[in-house]
Amino acid sequence: MAKSKKTTDIPTLTETWSLPAPATFGSLVRAKGILLEIRARLPMAVRKSLEYTVATLTLSMPEDAETEFRHTAASVSRALESIEDLPVIPREIQDILSISTTERHRWLEDGRLKSAGTRTVKLRGRARQITFHVFDPKLVKDLLDNGTVDEWREHDKAAAAENRRRAASKAKLARSLKKNKSSPKTAGSASSESPPLAGWDDFDLDGLLR
Q1: In sequence order, what are the beta bridge partners of 88?
Q2: Scanning 51, 61, 126, 184, which has its CA 20 to 30 A from the CA of 109?
Q3: What segments bear the compositional bias annotation Polar residues (predicted)?
Protein backbone atom coordinates (compact mmCIF):
# COMPACT_ATOMS: atom_id res chain seq x y z
CA MET A 1 0.00 0.00 0.00
CA ALA A 2 1.45 3.36 -0.97
CA LYS A 3 2.22 5.74 1.82
CA SER A 4 0.28 8.95 1.87
CA LYS A 5 2.24 11.96 0.76
CA LYS A 6 3.28 14.12 3.67
CA THR A 7 2.64 17.76 3.15
CA THR A 8 5.35 20.24 4.09
CA ASP A 9 3.41 23.36 3.22
CA ILE A 10 3.18 25.79 6.10
CA PRO A 11 0.48 28.48 6.08
CA THR A 12 2.13 31.87 5.76
CA LEU A 13 1.38 35.56 5.91
CA THR A 14 2.56 37.46 2.85
CA GLU A 15 2.73 41.03 1.61
CA THR A 16 4.28 42.39 -1.56
CA TRP A 17 5.61 45.76 -2.71
CA SER A 18 6.44 46.75 -6.27
CA LEU A 19 9.77 48.51 -6.68
CA PRO A 20 9.28 51.72 -8.70
CA ALA A 21 11.28 51.99 -11.92
CA PRO A 22 12.76 55.39 -10.93
CA ALA A 23 14.29 53.64 -7.92
CA THR A 24 15.81 50.68 -9.76
CA PHE A 25 16.66 52.36 -13.13
CA GLY A 26 15.73 48.99 -14.62
CA SER A 27 18.84 47.46 -13.04
CA LEU A 28 18.71 44.05 -11.35
CA VAL A 29 21.88 44.93 -9.43
CA ARG A 30 20.21 48.09 -8.11
CA ALA A 31 17.03 46.17 -7.20
CA LYS A 32 19.00 43.61 -5.20
CA GLY A 33 20.93 46.45 -3.59
CA ILE A 34 17.63 47.94 -2.42
CA LEU A 35 16.65 44.55 -1.00
CA LEU A 36 19.90 44.35 0.97
CA GLU A 37 19.50 47.93 2.19
CA ILE A 38 15.98 47.30 3.50
CA ARG A 39 17.01 43.98 5.03
CA ALA A 40 19.78 45.80 6.91
CA ARG A 41 17.12 47.98 8.57
CA LEU A 42 15.20 44.95 9.86
CA PRO A 43 15.93 42.78 12.91
CA MET A 44 18.42 40.04 12.10
CA ALA A 45 15.89 37.25 12.79
CA VAL A 46 13.46 38.37 10.07
CA ARG A 47 15.80 39.63 7.34
CA LYS A 48 15.64 36.45 5.27
CA SER A 49 11.83 36.65 5.30
CA LEU A 50 12.04 39.48 2.76
CA GLU A 51 12.83 38.35 -0.79
CA TYR A 52 13.08 39.91 -4.25
CA THR A 53 11.37 38.51 -7.35
CA VAL A 54 10.72 40.33 -10.64
CA ALA A 55 10.69 43.96 -9.45
CA THR A 56 8.76 42.96 -6.35
CA LEU A 57 9.66 42.60 -2.68
CA THR A 58 7.80 39.85 -0.87
CA LEU A 59 7.59 39.38 2.88
CA SER A 60 6.59 35.89 4.00
CA MET A 61 6.26 34.73 7.61
CA PRO A 62 4.38 31.95 9.47
CA GLU A 63 0.81 32.65 10.50
CA ASP A 64 1.71 32.32 14.17
CA ALA A 65 4.07 35.33 13.84
CA GLU A 66 1.33 37.81 13.03
CA THR A 67 2.53 40.55 15.38
CA GLU A 68 6.11 40.32 14.16
CA PHE A 69 4.83 40.21 10.58
CA ARG A 70 2.86 43.44 11.00
CA HIS A 71 5.84 45.24 12.57
CA THR A 72 8.16 44.05 9.81
CA ALA A 73 5.73 44.98 7.04
CA ALA A 74 5.39 48.47 8.50
CA SER A 75 9.19 48.85 8.56
CA VAL A 76 9.46 47.80 4.91
CA SER A 77 6.73 50.25 3.90
CA ARG A 78 8.48 53.11 5.70
CA ALA A 79 11.81 52.26 4.06
CA LEU A 80 10.22 52.27 0.61
CA GLU A 81 8.76 55.74 1.05
CA SER A 82 12.14 57.35 0.32
CA ILE A 83 13.74 54.55 -1.65
CA GLU A 84 14.17 56.68 -4.78
CA ASP A 85 16.58 58.89 -2.82
CA LEU A 86 18.78 55.97 -1.76
CA PRO A 87 22.39 56.73 -2.83
CA VAL A 88 23.72 54.62 -5.69
CA ILE A 89 26.76 52.50 -4.82
CA PRO A 90 29.64 51.68 -7.25
CA ARG A 91 28.49 48.30 -8.56
CA GLU A 92 25.01 49.73 -9.13
CA ILE A 93 26.12 52.79 -11.10
CA GLN A 94 28.37 50.59 -13.24
CA ASP A 95 25.41 48.37 -14.11
CA ILE A 96 22.97 51.26 -14.65
CA LEU A 97 25.30 53.22 -16.93
CA SER A 98 27.04 50.16 -18.42
CA ILE A 99 30.48 51.49 -17.49
CA SER A 100 33.63 49.72 -16.34
CA THR A 101 35.43 50.04 -13.02
CA THR A 102 38.29 51.79 -14.84
CA GLU A 103 35.94 54.37 -16.34
CA ARG A 104 34.30 55.01 -12.97
CA HIS A 105 37.68 55.61 -11.31
CA ARG A 106 38.94 57.82 -14.16
CA TRP A 107 35.85 60.02 -14.24
CA LEU A 108 35.83 60.32 -10.46
CA GLU A 109 39.48 61.41 -10.42
CA ASP A 110 39.08 64.05 -13.14
CA GLY A 111 35.87 65.42 -11.62
CA ARG A 112 33.40 64.51 -14.35
CA LEU A 113 31.60 61.97 -12.15
CA LYS A 114 30.52 63.78 -9.00
CA SER A 115 30.58 61.91 -5.71
CA ALA A 116 27.76 62.39 -3.21
CA GLY A 117 30.06 61.39 -0.35
CA THR A 118 31.53 58.17 0.97
CA ARG A 119 30.23 55.18 2.83
CA THR A 120 32.11 52.77 5.07
CA VAL A 121 30.95 49.20 5.61
CA LYS A 122 32.38 46.18 7.38
CA LEU A 123 32.79 43.07 5.26
CA ARG A 124 30.77 40.13 6.49
CA GLY A 125 32.84 37.80 8.65
CA ARG A 126 35.89 40.07 8.48
CA ALA A 127 37.37 42.76 10.67
CA ARG A 128 38.38 44.90 7.69
CA GLN A 129 36.23 47.82 6.60
CA ILE A 130 36.00 49.34 3.13
CA THR A 131 35.14 52.90 2.14
CA PHE A 132 33.69 53.79 -1.23
CA HIS A 133 32.03 56.68 -3.04
CA VAL A 134 28.25 56.84 -3.45
CA PHE A 135 26.28 58.82 -6.04
CA ASP A 136 23.15 60.93 -6.08
CA PRO A 137 20.37 59.06 -7.94
CA LYS A 138 19.31 62.37 -9.56
CA LEU A 139 22.79 62.70 -11.07
CA VAL A 140 22.66 59.10 -12.30
CA LYS A 141 19.29 59.79 -13.95
CA ASP A 142 20.68 62.86 -15.73
CA LEU A 143 23.71 60.95 -16.99
CA LEU A 144 21.47 58.16 -18.23
CA ASP A 145 18.90 60.42 -19.92
CA ASN A 146 21.40 62.77 -21.58
CA GLY A 147 23.76 60.15 -23.00
CA THR A 148 26.62 61.85 -21.18
CA VAL A 149 28.64 58.66 -20.86
CA ASP A 150 28.89 58.38 -24.67
CA GLU A 151 30.21 61.96 -24.83
CA TRP A 152 32.81 61.21 -22.16
CA ARG A 153 33.96 58.14 -24.04
CA GLU A 154 34.36 60.11 -27.27
CA HIS A 155 36.36 62.73 -25.39
CA ASP A 156 38.58 60.03 -23.89
CA LYS A 157 39.18 58.46 -27.32
CA ALA A 158 40.22 61.82 -28.78
CA ALA A 159 42.47 62.53 -25.79
CA ALA A 160 44.09 59.09 -26.05
CA ALA A 161 44.72 59.58 -29.78
CA GLU A 162 46.32 62.98 -29.13
CA ASN A 163 48.50 61.52 -26.38
CA ARG A 164 49.67 58.76 -28.72
CA ARG A 165 50.48 61.33 -31.42
CA ARG A 166 52.49 63.44 -28.99
CA ALA A 167 54.31 60.39 -27.63
CA ALA A 168 55.21 59.29 -31.18
CA SER A 169 56.50 62.78 -32.06
CA LYS A 170 58.55 62.91 -28.88
CA ALA A 171 60.04 59.48 -29.52
CA LYS A 172 60.87 60.43 -33.11
CA LEU A 173 62.62 63.61 -31.97
CA ALA A 174 64.59 61.69 -29.34
CA ARG A 175 65.75 59.17 -31.94
CA SER A 176 66.78 61.97 -34.29
CA LEU A 177 68.80 63.76 -31.60
CA LYS A 178 70.46 60.52 -30.56
CA LYS A 179 71.37 59.72 -34.17
CA ASN A 180 72.87 63.18 -34.76
CA LYS A 181 74.84 63.00 -31.55
CA SER A 182 76.36 59.61 -32.38
CA SER A 183 77.16 60.40 -36.04
CA PRO A 184 80.96 61.17 -36.70
CA LYS A 185 81.83 64.50 -38.28
CA THR A 186 82.50 64.21 -42.00
CA ALA A 187 85.59 65.51 -43.72
CA GLY A 188 85.38 69.15 -44.68
CA SER A 189 82.78 69.87 -42.06
CA ALA A 190 82.94 73.25 -40.41
CA SER A 191 85.46 73.54 -37.61
CA SER A 192 84.36 74.57 -34.18
CA GLU A 193 86.86 77.45 -34.44
CA SER A 194 85.92 80.54 -36.44
CA PRO A 195 87.82 80.91 -39.77
CA PRO A 196 90.41 83.74 -39.93
CA LEU A 197 89.18 87.02 -41.39
CA ALA A 198 90.55 87.91 -44.81
CA GLY A 199 93.08 90.79 -44.76
CA TRP A 200 93.50 90.65 -41.02
CA ASP A 201 97.30 90.47 -41.17
CA ASP A 202 97.47 93.60 -43.34
CA PHE A 203 95.17 95.36 -40.95
CA ASP A 204 97.48 94.44 -38.07
CA LEU A 205 100.60 95.62 -39.93
CA ASP A 206 99.14 99.07 -40.39
CA GLY A 207 99.33 99.44 -36.66
CA LEU A 208 95.67 100.07 -36.27
CA LEU A 209 95.43 97.55 -33.43
CA ARG A 210 98.05 99.33 -31.31
Answers
A1: 135
A2: 126
A3: 184-194
